[in-house]
Amino acid sequence: MLSSVRRILLVLATIVIAISMPLASLRTHSPRGSAATTTRLPALMLWAWERPVDLRQLGPDAGVAFLAQTITVSPDAFVPSPRRQPLLVNPGTPLIAVTRIDAPGQVPSSARRIDEMARAIAMTSSLPGTLAIQIDFDATRSQREMYRRLLFAVRAALPHGMPLSMTALASWCTDDDWLDDLPIDEAVPMLFRMGPAEGSMRSVFARRPHAPACRGVVGTSLDEAPPQGVANRTYVFNPEPWTEAAIGAARRRVTP
Predict the structure, then answer these.
(1) What DSSP designation does 122 have?
(2) 239 or 11, greater pLDDT
């Protein structure tokens, strides 16, 4: 399994082009994980999902969180699928390699399988220009224990000083405390596509989210109203291709 993952990384390295390694000073991490350790990352991060993306017009004051791979899991196996579309950025653009986890049913329970998944995720930290990695997994309540074990395993497999980020359903930041002891540097509350709970969640986040890992960071989408409140870092999703106008709209969502 790991040999196939290494082959996938070679494919990824040819897809992510026109980039170079950024300054090592941007890499910071405390042993247990803390939101404060990612404060040197840019205030604006653009999500680049599975489509051809050209962000060479982006300045060094903003970064790109790009989908590096999707991992589909079942009780007995996981299948990593690499990004297949090109990503073009300028040398020095801060990058975060994102792994999306799809789990339509039950998830692995064996420590060996979870450790293999963790190593597959941690390997994306070696992609050129990557400052941090992020995991995107809408885990159900029954999948949380596996996800928790996976996050600890990923943390152990990452190089020292590599920040670990995760996306978070808005309710994770307000309704319970399961994020509080995770070895992460930040949890990005996804304040879009929230369904019937949108109004109440926006009201809560206009004040302050409960979970410490969610404070100071927010995820938003260009086709929905921006969230209210103060954020140190804003991740912006665009359902349409990134253009100069879209980048300008994303910049306007950053808290002054």
Answers:
(1) H
(2) 239
Q: What is the pLDDT of residue 140?
A: 93
pTM of the entire predicted model: 0.85
pLDDT at 101: 96
Spatial neighbors of 124 by CB under 8 A, at least 6 apart, are: 9, 12, 68, 69, 97, 99, 130, 133
In the numeric block, the tokens 């978070």 are attached to: 168
- For Cα atoms 148, 150, 155, give the angle at the middle one, nearest 5 degrees: 100
**Residue pair 191/219 in contact by the 8 Å Cβ criterion:** yes
What pLDDT is stored for residue 3 in this prediction?
56
Q: Which of 9-13, 34-38, 164-168, 173-177 has the lowest mean pLDDT?
A: 34-38
Helices 2-15/111-122 angle, 10° precision? 20
Parallel, antiparallel or unpaired: strands 130-136 and 186-190: unpaired
One-letter identity of residue 141: R
Would you call 40 helix, strand, or coil by DSSP? coil
* b/e per residue 57-79 (b: at least 16 CB within 10 A): ebeeebbbbbbbbbbebeeeebe
Residues 48-77 have a mean pLDDT of: 93
What's the CA gap between 140 and 53, in Å, rounded?
31
**Class of residue 14 by CB neighbours under 10 A (exposed 0-12, middle 13-18, buried 19+):** exposed
CA distance 109 to 104: 15
Between CA 112 and CA 109 the distance in angstroms is 9
